[in-house]
Amino acid sequence: MKPELFFLPNGENDILYAPLRRFIAEVSSSVKNAVAAHMNGLALDESQNKVIGILKDKGVFDEAEPPKIEEEFCPTRVTLFPTDFCNLRCRYCYASAAEGGHRLPMNAARAAIDLISENAKKKGYSQFSLGFHGNGEPFMAQDIMQECCEYAAGIAEKNNVRCQFSTATNGVLSDSDLDFLLAWIADVNVSFDILPDIQNRQRPTAGGGGSFDRVSHTLSRLDAAGAQYGIRATITTESVTRLREMAAFAKEHYPKCNVLHMEPVFEVGRALLTGQSSPPSEIFVREFIKAQNELKGSGIRLVYSGARSNGLYASFCSVCRNGFTVTAEGNATSCYEVCTYQDPRAQRYIYGKYDEQSGKFLFDSEKMELLSKLNVSNFSYCEDCFCKWHCAGDCTAKTLGLGSLEQHAGSERCVITRALIYREVLERMGVDAGIEPVFI
């Protein structure tokens, strides 16, 4: 395997970037020419040989093992969807969540928890993880959540291990919901568009009223309890120029927020009916940078899902192996967003179901084998991209859908990912990235 080396522009010079070797250096055009000649097997002069020798000493040309997916399906984490009922009618909801009609059967929930706890024991892990999410609001079935937590805690105690609990929520919670949350769940992510007018417009209640006050009350309770949490804001064409304002508001009003996640809306689900559109990528990047600068020194980390140069990944998420999510209907899906058979993508991403007769989950091994191929090593489009081991080809449910691996052709999100990861590379070099983005 050839070492993966990339040259990125940086004024008069270039940046030599070897992600698998964790190597970054600013280099002159003569160094770039020497590297290119060496990689192409051309004869080198004395000065070029000296440059290549220095780089060889630093391991730049050594083969490096790329990240791989786990070969065995053996999840130690499950995400449960307690219900598909929702108390909000968000204008861009990917699932068009509304009245729903399903509540997760406890037999299926217990079987899922049994499976991950047994796998943790098999692997010798000291913990397993239980999360709550949904194509509805999890706390609309708080009784199911509590029963799941109590059951998982009992197993953890019996096996002398820990169970880590997490949840995503829209934040429109009662005080009894909050009492339960604070008692049980340490990892909380709140979907919230931060500014009152944007939140009330984009995330109205089922009755059509505003939801800002209710969510702000939830965050105030979390702050008062000293709980740390993340906020996830969805950005549309209407709201994109207010990212810095959002960041400033969060910094001032929600002091225990440790992660602010800003993500362009995906034009699916209810967004198609309400006309919510994703902002132009270049504008999103510029406004994101302004928000980053606003948050400097605040303790709040601003993130976008594709920009994560601090790690190396074979896949964007766990979709290709050990992505174990149980929907309110008792189906096993590898993708949070593909949660019903009404979604055409279900034929790829829903790979199992709870079986009442056996009391266990039955998995489709053929589908699981196909899912295992959804990793960046199999996307020819990504082959020459310096971001390939960071974004790992991005979310395949969105970029690929039901298409073949050869049809992966990236998306507008690639513009965002490349620009933001390039800035992260500069920052890792100790270079001030400035306020103007570079689009590569």
Number of helices: 14
Number of domains: 2
The neighbouring-strand order within the major sheet is 10-9-8-7-6-5-4-11-12-13-14
Mean pLDDT: 95
CATH 2nd-level architecture of the largest domain:
Alpha-Beta Barrel
CATH topology of the largest domain: TIM Barrel
How are the SSEs ordered, and which strands pair?
Layout lengths: L5 E5 L2 E6 L4 E5 L1 H11 L6 H12 L19 E4 L25 H18 L3 E6 L9 H18 L2 E8 L5 H10 L2 E5 L4 H7 L9 H13 L4 E7 L7 H11 L3 E8 L6 H4 L6 H15 L5 E3 L21 E2 L4 E3 L12 H4 E6 L4 E4 L1 H7 L24 H4 L13 H16 L12
Short description, anyone?
The protein has 440 residues and is α/β, with parallel strands linked by helices.
Task: Describe it.
Helix content is 34%, strand content 16%. By secondary structure, it is of the alpha/beta class. The protein folds into two domains: 1-65, no CATH class; 77-365, TIM Barrel. The protein has an eleven-stranded mixed beta sheet. Strands 1-2-3 form a three-stranded antiparallel beta sheet. Strand 4 (77-80), helix 3 (106-123) and strand 5 (127-132) form a beta-alpha-beta unit. Helix 3 (106-123) runs parallel beside helix 4 (142-159) and helix 8 (243-253) packs parallel to helix 10. The longest helix is centred in the first third of the chain and has 18 residues, at 106-123. It is globular, with a radius of gyration of 23 Å. The protein starts with 5 loop residues before the first strand and ends in a 12-residue tail after the last helix. The mean pLDDT is 95.
